[in-house]
Amino acid sequence: MRVSDLFIYPLKSARGIALQSTEINAFGLPGDRRAMLINPDGSFITQREMTDLARLDVRQEASGFQLGMNGETLFVPLPDGIKRIDVSIWKSIVNAAVADDHSNQVLSRWFGRELKFVFFDDDANRIASPEWAGDDTPVTFADGYQILVTTTGSLKALNADIEAHGEGSVGMERFRPNIVIDTDEAWPEDRWAAIEIGGIRFDLVKPCARCIMTTQDQQTGSREVANPMPAMGRIRMSADRRVPGPLFGWNVTPRAAGAIAIGDTVNVLDERPDGWAFKVRKRA
């Protein structure tokens, strides 16, 4: 097995960037989900409620972020950290740096609603769930964990069910992974407890429950496209109440620093023999 793709998403829920190689640190892939758009009350915004985020290009540079949408561009300088706000991401509260007023005004005009751009700087702190990831594992603005891993064999199996029901097919971009592993087998990740890439141990700590974002085209934000949710409901519904809903991919916590690249070999270090429990589909 080898790494087939690597991605980061500099601004949470905006377009991703494909990489050939990347460093790995305690936060995961450097530059991943360090920025985010929020409502005036500090609550986070994603494609779930603002589909046009899928149309926002983001490139992080040394001094800030280059954004593009609808033929317009905007450079957002890295916030100096003086102006801050408490932002909420699910159950987490993070004290984040706020961008300059001009940037926030332009972004509010682009999306037709008042919002702010915030940055996870060196003074921001957030810890992943100790119940799943262990103690003191830092995470930025990701939904909950440092890295998301998916496999090509599992996408192939999912698409086989989608196509068998005349529902089209979907690409891996719908699931917004960080690391994609090329596998012949479907769903091997359900058994993996830990893998090694580039000499780094990655613990698969929790399966990823999927939401409406998987139904959206990741370039246009349209939901008038093939929908993987029915297929996941048929073959990937969790039977474990700790993580309810349809599952695709695993949340991963790195246990060392280093570097990985496309083409790197993936070795399984530890397995969970019973895998993960799924509901049995009733036959008509």
Secondary structure layout plus pairing:
Layout: E1 2-8, E2 17-19, E3 21-24, E4 35-38, E5 57-61, E6 64-69, E7 72-77, E8 84-89, E9 92-98, H1 101-111, E10 116-119, H2 130-133, E11 147-151, H3 152-164, E12 179-182, E13 192-197, E14 200-209, H4 229-235, E15 247-254, E16 258-261, E17 266-271
On the 0-100 scale, what is the average pLDDT?
A: 96
| Biggest sheet record | 8 strands, mixed
- Secondary structural class: mainly beta
Straight-line N-to-C gap: 37 Å
Radius of gyration from CA coordinates:
19 Å
Number of strands: 17
Strand order of the largest sheet: 2-1-12-11-15-14-13-17
Strand-and-helix sequence, N→C? EEEEEEEEEHEHEHEEEHEEE
Name the shape in a single word: globular
Helix content: 10-25%
Contiguous runs where pLDDT drops below 50 for at least 5 residues: none
List the quaternary state of the chains. single chain
Question: What can you tell me about this protein's structure?
Answer:
The chain has 284 residues and is mainly β. It is built from four helices and 17 strands. An eight-stranded mixed β-sheet has the order 2-1-12-11-15-14-13-17. Strands 4-10-9-8 form a four-stranded antiparallel β-sheet. The chain has a three-stranded antiparallel β-sheet with strand order 5-6-7, covered by helices on one side. The longest helix is centred in the middle third of the chain and has 13 residues, at 152-164. It is globular and about 50 Å long. 38% of the residues are buried.
